[in-house]
Batch of 4 targets.
Target 1
Amino acid sequence: MKGQLRSAYQIGDAQKTILVATKISKAINIPEELLRESTFMSGKAHYSQNEYDDALKDFRKISSEVTSAEGAESNYRVAEILNKKGQTAEAEKVINEFIDKNTPHQFWMARMFLLLADISIKKGDSLQAVATLRGLKDSYPVDSDGILDEVKAKLDSLNSGNQVSTDSLKIGTDTSVVGRK
């Protein structure tokens, strides 16, 4: 089943990914790592199908830990979906809890700070957004994954007095959801 799951996920077959992940979740004596992987892939497949409530359920199941890449990204996806559903306070809570857990996955920590800045902008607190973005700019060590480019674009927009677009975090705009970790 592990091979079927990974194959379906890698080719972007969301329905088959969900089907195989469901079979794995119902099987007995499945290693914890495989359960986490299948739940994560199911969440990403649901997300790619615009099934956000189902995606949220899957991501919540594995978001309690942040040491695995799946757990770290799942935390981000939970906060992202909550924010897009208008549950800003709950999204902020998820972000702050994630930050306190000190994940080793810097990319997902940075994505959380970008989301936190977007929430600040949405709430009309551009000073907090600027502070968050500058902190990220000063401390994020990787310059090749798009994080710093996004930080720069948001800061430039804020500094020019324009409202920063939070469209980059709208549900359904991430086309790389299925088939990538």
Target 2
Amino acid sequence: MSEFPFRFGVNEFTTQPWSYEEDVARYAALGVEAIEICEAKLDPQDAVRQISMAREAGLAISAVQPRIRTFFGSKMTPQPQAVEARVDAFASSLKTLAPHAEGAAFVMNTGAPLQGNMQRCLDETVHYLRRLSPLAADLGVTLAVEPLNPTSINAETAIWTIDQALDLLDAVGHKACGSVWITGISGNSPNARLRYAARDHVSLWYRPVTGVRPCQPWTV
């Protein structure tokens, strides 16, 4: 049991050289309590069995990073290009993985705005989140909007602050759609802490070592 006031978990993106099987074995051996699964590390033909390995090793599944996790194209996953195809891929990940990851947050972002049109990107992201949130709720999971570092603008995302993420959630207006807050990456207004703390469906992620100067974490 962790001495932290929260469950300690590891995102598979942070151990990218390892295979999924190595992640599960080494996390469990090191006393990690939860795993954030990256679907890209799973074998599409064997994903259900692989997910069961995490539970058998004593790891809770806290979150899932779908193979396609943005509605618009991104630098990391540029294909497929069509927005509808990407939304369908995200929905397919939900239907395949959520039944075996009850309570997990499926992490997503907007992707890169087409021709730099951020407003269109945000409007369409709201539209598709409204479509997918009921599906997530029916499957017993949540959707988690993740603001990224400003250096990812026009490459991976159109949002980079908690206030922007919360504005997006307010526009979606569904209990199955929440956000994650990565300290040291997301810029915030003085009011962001209060807005964030007032919501029911949010998660606080601490990342003390980043490529940018970390911010002082807030208690919420």
Target 3
Amino acid sequence: MKEQAREITGKNGQKYTMKSINAANAEQFLDFMYQVSDDTHFMSRYGDEVGKSENDIKEEGKRLQSLYDDSRQTMTSIFEGEKIIGNIAVRCVGKGRKTKHRCEIGLGVRKEYHGAGLGTHLMKYAIEFAKDAGYTCMELGVLEDNDKARGLYKKMGFVESGRLPGAFQLDDGTEIGEISMYKIL
């Protein structure tokens, strides 16, 4: 979904730009995903699993453009200059009549910006976007040891709907459960 760029202010008073991203932002987005995936185990892949080749950039560009062109989905990022420092995706769970009322979200913020209120800005935006797009249920998954994210989601009105033990298996053999959460809009 095309969203006009707008200025937001972090808790520290710093000004940032929030806007929808598209194919032109593919390389920036992959850099962001590499960094956040490398900084923490909370993402669904490791940093070294994020492709950075010309073909990876091209494929990511197609995916981002598809989301940008879809009025019911978005990939929205917060920028500091030209660098993506936070991102939220709102994607439909299904396009059929039985599930078109449901969307899922994915949120990430660079580690050095944790605590700046960017996650809250992104979540508020995503909830309003989802309502405007006609969704009535928003869903997400969060690792059971990600206390900060769980706190944010609870603050935003999400409730737990289930747990999957051992959903993530880290390279060192550690297993971490995933909590499913939802919010009725």
Target 4
Amino acid sequence: MALRVMNKYLESIINTCGSVKAILYLRLLSFTESIFFPIPTDALLAPMVISGKHNWISISITATIWSVLGGIVGYYLGYYLYDVIEPYIYNLGKYEQYLIAKNYFQTYGIVFLFIAAFTPIPYKVFTISAGVLDYNIILFILISVIGRGARFFLVSIICFKYGQYMLMVINKYLLLIGTIIIILFAITLWI
């Protein structure tokens, strides 16, 4: 019974993601997720591809462009935020640590940014940090395009090729996983 309800719910989400408005929502989500929004773009991108009503390449490009644009805004927020937080860094006696962090970011920024852009690590933290640490903006944009593009194209191609199979896996295990998480959460609160 519960599995049937969950299946209908997932199907309704996928049908909704097939609408024309979904592209607008994808742009908005991709942009804001790179700055502050906690829900990853993949949460909308995957059902849009699975719906079969959008070209997976086109929406992957859309997600990449808008995510990178949001990342640039995040970068400049961090860049201008530094003027506000710099006195606090000095007053807290953390300026030397800031310089060490900046040096690490200058040395390993390509790796840090690519990992953040490609993996589930919150990209927004690194967009703002790159600005605060005055990382090279051109390199930041290039790495963001490559990392975000690779991530969104990977999600899209997997959903395009294995969409229905992925739905069966979600339908089969989502209720079980959700129940286990709720039980573990209840046990954690109990202890």
